[in-house]
Amino acid sequence: MEPTNSSTVASQRRRKRMRTQSRLTPWKDGYELDTVGRALLLAMRLLRDATMSCLTEHEQADLQHALHRVNMWKARSDQGRIPHSMETTYCLAQVAWHDVNGSCCSSMELRMAYATAIMRGVNGLADVLQQNRAYAASVASLCEQIGLPGWLVDIRHEAAHNDLPTLPVLRLATSTFIGYLEERYWIPMANSRHEMRQAAVDLLVKYKETCKKKTTTDATAKQEDEARLIDSSTDEESESNETNDDSFEQSLGTNRNRFAVLSDTAEPPKSKKQRNMEEAKAKQKVAAAATKEAVHSALHFVRVFVRDVPIDVGYHVALSFLVWGGIGEAPSGRGVLIPGSPASFPASDEGVERIRLRYKPLILVLCRSWPGFAHALLVHLVDHVLSIEATVGDNVDEGSKRKLFFLTSWIRFLLSRELHVRNDKAIGLFKKEDLSEKRPAKWTKAELEFMKSPAPYSTLSQARFPLNSLCDRCVGTGVIGVENGSHDLSVFLSDILGEYSVANHGVPDREASESIAAETETLTAISLHGMDQVLQNISDGVTDTSIDFASAVGEPSASDPSNALKGGWTQCQTWDACPIGSLPGRL
């Protein structure tokens, strides 16, 4: 029986955890959900003031955008199902928007719309409680359990079985119902996400502080077994108790060893040299234990971060912590990947190596545990480079140059052989030696430069990195004289792409197409008979495609009903790109 690969087992365990602990949602992440929720709750102010002037133009646009966004979520979800509280808020806010905006035709339509939304909202809340009961209960008693005002249940009853309530009453009921959903659904959900976000930030801060407290030097850190850091499982594994070979000797003199009196426990005297050697070994063991404990404790926080933090919250927190800053004591605009101390981390290869030793384990675990994180990190790093250049323009100060230097170094690392050699060992072959089986600390200078070089396009293309789109964004946006800017990145990405480079996402330049169309004076008109002749020649395998269109041209005869098409066919001179992007370029 062949031994099972530990990395394969760990990968299968991660995929299983992703399937069981993750679910597909129609919204992109929790932050989009919170934004839409805050906008929908603006409907309470519309109902309170009964005028559009109570909202600013920006708030009106947010509310209208939120209504369209929820409608899109319903189209994305299975059978149009979204959480009931969210759908109720959406329906009530939509009716309030049409009421204040004057979109409805009559008061009866408004009363029916309000009453229907309230009935569906109350019935949905009661149905959830009714399903968990062995015996049926009234809607009023069920809604009382969840704190819904009783008079809202009465309005639901009146609207369903008696006369429709008046419009002012329905407006007040709608405003109260939205306030109830805000208190019981939207606010608790936002608070829970905020707590998870804060817990995620605390874990990353602890990782940073633990890395700072490490007692290792750079030379010792380079000797860490990187394979153990990368391929270690993100799950907390219980450590088995090890059996010591000298357990019998340790039990001498106890009630477990009845023959203790027969054992010779006296140790022979040791020389001074032996004592000094033992003391040196003990100090080395203590230092190694401290180093191992520091590394393991730092990775422990990463494992807990990956295991306990939801992916949408973890993505946002990790990218903000690493790239953009503003959380975890990092200043806004400078994440931890851009060190702030020029003395400890100079803008040189030495500084890059030091900062990489600190945060490389974190990035490797996140890239391995969360699908697509490497792509997101790469895109955000490029975004940060472009944002810095857009802010400073031609006046690039020393601080901006330092940021660009470290950002570019991390971009090169994400596309290097060193990162991708775990997935494709073929790219780690250097002079017939597999460098993936060799510790980075033992790489020679030539081997180190080879592993720092970009991975082949085939490997990066298989990993689905958006190289063409990033290259297009960097072309023509930066200043040529700025070192490590977007211009240098465009050259770097173009060298990786090589012959696979597709400019402008594969979409033809519109200005060039318009210039070609302007140079074309007239379009040749072709009759249906002429077009049939052209198609027949193609089907017959005629290699000569130069067709005498002049002989095929013919004005349609009014007497012939088969030639009723006015203008005939025209020869295509240009081909416009699809506006919705159905013809994308290659990666």
Quantity of strands, as a count: 4
* Strand line-up in the sheet with most strands: 1-2
Helical segment count: 25
Shape: extended
> What's the mean pLDDT score?
78
Unreliable residue stretches? 215-266, 549-568, 580-587
Helix content: 55-70%
Radius of gyration: 34 Å
Give the percentage of residues in beta strands: under 5%
Structural class: mainly alpha
Distance between the termini: 41 Å
The SSE string, one letter per element, is HHHHHHHHHHHHHHHHHHEEHHHHHEHHE
Description of the structure:
The structure is a single chain. By secondary structure, the chain is mainly alpha-helical. Helices cover about 60% and strands about 0% of the residues. The strands form two sheets. The protein has a two-stranded antiparallel ribbon with strand order 1-2. A two-stranded antiparallel sheet has the order 3-4. It is extended and about 100 Å long.
Structural topology:
Elements: H1 6-21, H2 30-40, H3 43-49, H4 57-76, H5 84-101, H6 107-130, H7 139-145, H8 150-161, H9 167-212, H10 218-222, H11 226-231, H12 247-250, H13 272-308, H14 311-324, H15 349-369, H16 373-392, H17 398-414, H18 417-420, E1 429-430, E2 433-434, H19 445-452, H20 457-462, H21 467-474, H22 486-497, H23 510-519, E3 525-526, H24 528-539, H25 549-552, E4 569-570
Task: Record keyword descriptors for this entry.
25 helices; mainly alpha; two-stranded antiparallel ribbon; 1% strand; disordered C terminus; 587 residues; 59% helix
Summarize the structure.
The protein has helices at 6-21, 30-40, 43-49, 57-76, 84-101, 107-130, 139-145, 150-161, 167-212, 218-222, 226-231, 247-250, 272-308, 311-324, 349-369, 373-392, 398-414, 417-420, 445-452, 457-462, 467-474, 486-497, 510-519, 528-539, 549-552; strands spanning 429-430, 433-434, 525-526, 569-570. By secondary structure, it is mostly helical.
